[in-house]
Amino acid sequence: TGKGNNVTDREVTVEAAPKRVITLNQGATEVVLALGLEDQLVGTAYLDDAVSPAWAAAYEEVPVLAKEYPTNEQVLAAEPDFVYASYASAFEAKVAGERDVLANSGVGTYLSPFGCPEAGQRPEATFEAAWQELRDVAALLGAPESAKHLVETQEESLSAIEDAAPGAGFDVVWFDSGDKTPFVGGGDGGPQLILDALGATNVFEDLEGGWGDGNWEDVLAADPDVIVLADAAWSTAKEKRAYLEKDPVLRDLKAVRAGAFITVPFSETTPGVRLVDGASTVAEAIDALDPLP
Questions:
Q1: Which of 25, 51, 91, 144 is the most buried (most CB within 10 A)?
Q2: Contact assessment for residue 29 and residue 51, using Cβ atoms and an 8 Å cutoff
Q3: Residues 41-74 as b or e (16 or more Cβ within 10 Å = b)
Q4: Burial of 119 (C-beta count, 10 Å sphere; 0-12/13-18/19+)
Q5: d(CA 283, CA 144)
Q6: pLDDT category, 8, cuts 50, 70, 90?
Q7: 243: pLDDT confidence band, cut at 50, 70 and 90?
């Protein structure tokens, strides 16, 4: 028997390890791949960017059910016994199907705690909370020991980054998307966790939530040393850099003049199995800035 999180008052229990699992977001897919449980996958869907090279070969062996979310009919056609998603939007009636409906078809479900639609029921965004999800999923899929080595390895990597503090003294804007209004990393999500680990200062650390609308006036006032560009299918790092370099005001920012841009895959910016990779990506890029801005 395995048990998982209590999301929206739903405790997840399985009496036997699922053998036919579908993952409905890249974050969920990469958790299963990182745990080495790809043989239990019968379908995936909805990438934000490229799957980590560490698991790309395993991913290629798993059927992709849809570019974005599959329909309930597509899900059931794969004959799953379990469906795991990162976001509550996966379990809407018009796509994969509501969780109660899937349960009535004999399909268990698990929603990442970070994807809970009720903000008050989401865990605080921490590395430990991300690791707990790995432990929960490993237990539910019948392989609790598979999370142990993975978490220990990530803990060691994070500790080394924190000790080195390569971002100390740097003011950083984490730019996700937008033009007239920048959508930026706030004080309660993946970007803040990464910047804290590096010892850097997030210009928008007082913005509530993991992400939110910033404003260019605050960016200009802060004149950041570094701009991190989230690279996603819907808003590429290349597009954002071009916008900053073309704008007659923003191009005079210190970071823009110095070319102090750091590109991070969106999948490394959300609390999950690749968040420590995101910290490593930013740490290595900051170390490589030469000359320093």
A1: 25
A2: yes
A3: bbbbbbbbbebbeebeebbeebeebbeebbebeb
A4: exposed
A5: 31
A6: very low
A7: very high
The residue to which tokens 């080394």 are assigned: 160
For residue 265, give both structure tokens. 């895959």
Amino acid identity, position 10:
R
- Residue 174: its H or E element: strand 171-177
Phi, psi of 125 (to 5 degrees): -70, 110
The rounded distance, in Å, linking the Cα atoms of 235 and 221 is 25
Do the Cβ atoms of 141 and 32 come closer than 8 Å? Answer: yes
- Three-state DSSP class for residue 211: strand
Helix (H) or strand (E) holding 247: none
Q: In this structure, are residues 32 and 110 in contact, taking their beta carbons and an 8 Å threshold?
A: no
Mapping DSSP onto H, E and C, the string for 133-167 reads HHHHHHHHCCCCCHHHHHHHHHHHHHHHHHHHCCC
**What's the CA gap between 225 and 216, in Å, rounded?**
15
pLDDT average, residue stretch 51-70: 97
Instruction: Return the structure tokens found at 100.
Output: 């109660």
Output the six-digit token pair for 238. 């290349």
Residue partners of 80: CB distance under 8 A and separation at least 6: 18, 20, 21, 22, 42, 43, 107
In whole angstroms, what is the distance from residue 288 CA to residue 282 CA? 10
Q: Is the pLDDT of residue 184 over 50?
A: yes
* Residue pLDDT, tens place only, 72-110: 999 999 999 999 999 999 999 999 999 999 999 999 999
